[in-house]
Amino acid sequence: MSKMEDLLRQQEQIAAAIEAEVIRSRDEAAKGASQGQYEMAVLMHFARGVPKNYPEAMKLYKLAAAQGHAGAQLNLGLMFENAQGASEDFVQALHWYKQAATHGNAEAQWRLGILCEEGRGAKQDFQAAMQCYKMAAAHGLAQAQFAIGQMYENHHGVERDYAKAAEWYKQAAAQGHGEAQTRLGQIYERGVDIKQDFVQAMHWFRSAADAGHTSAQLHVGLLYEHGQGVKEDVHEALRWFKIAASQGNADAQTKMGFMYSNGRGVKQDYHQAMDWYRLAAEKDHAGALSNLGFMYEHGQGVEEDEARALSYYARAAKKGDAYAIKNRDVLMAHRAEHEAHQAALEAQKAAQEVHKLSK
């Protein structure tokens, strides 16, 4: 049997299994069984073997939810939160998440915590959010463990405590949660409330970077660039910056511009630098905007253009970029001085003409 024939056979088997699942779920739903109603609703909700049908999915979820099915209650919350089959309604989402949460559904407890923390569907309540997150975390839900770490890091209802944040991030990170791995790496990198440890920082950054998290890829590059936790290697740094930049990370794109502009790990190339800065500037990255201003001011890779330089400095300055604010003010003062000098020369010239005519 050829590979193509084997693939076709496998596809036929999958299609047959899906069809059998649809028939079984439909039959169970028709009997009024909550599990069958839930399973049929899932197939319609996510278009698995049947056309997507939000109204019918919601109807079946409600029938199952009325019988206390936690999965149906959770998915009703998701549909109301995401405006699927009904208008966006955080009050209804909150209601159904609460129903599922009381039945011990960890994802519902976590999602309920998010709504409480953000004040959607009810008044913002950090204490209630933390309680929900901890219930979900007790079930081992990595997203909830990460959320608790964020609460400690962001000073939401608790004293800011990076050591406690790291403890919770570590639990989520051990389960492969990429954002938790990245945040844990950053805490070790900075050494706030815990001992600074670049080796540990690199370990967690690399774990997230290998899973495709661009922020972690950027930080791996930074550690290689500065020789922190690893031997300094600007070529390896550049490689990681490019991986992240190619996936659209604006910080990494700006870093690529800097590397080309300054010839670090690569031959100096102002045109390449401009290309990377422009990509980041399209995302309104303050550093990229500021650096574009500098390149236009000094004619690096482009014709010198003070007006465009000021335009880029102004955009970056609005975002609070101190470098752009300084360069804008210096350039504006220089232009004002130049204009005043030119005006003085014109006045002097005019006075000389008047003096000639009076003779």
Lay out the secondary structure.
Layout: H1 3-30, H2 34-45, H3 54-65, H4 70-81, H5 90-102, H6 106-118, H7 126-138, H8 142-154, H9 162-173, H10 178-190, H11 198-210, H12 214-226, H13 234-246, H14 250-262, H15 270-281, H16 286-298, H17 306-318, H18 322-358
Helix pairs in contact: 1-2, 2-3, 3-4, 4-5, 5-6, 6-7, 7-8, 8-9, 9-10, 10-11, 11-12, 12-13, 13-14, 14-15, 15-16, 16-17, 16-18, 17-18
- What percent of residues are in strands? under 5%
Instruction: Please give the number of β-strands.
Output: 0
Structural class from helices and strands? mainly alpha
Largest sheet: none
Radius of gyration: 30 Å
Oligomer: single chain
- Shape descriptor: elongated
Query: Ends: how far apart?
Result: 110 Å
Give the averaged pLDDT, no decimals: 90
Q: State the helicity in percent bands.
A: over 70%
Low-confidence stretches: none
The number of helical runs is 18
* Order of helix and strand elements from N to C terminus: HHHHHHHHHHHHHHHHHH
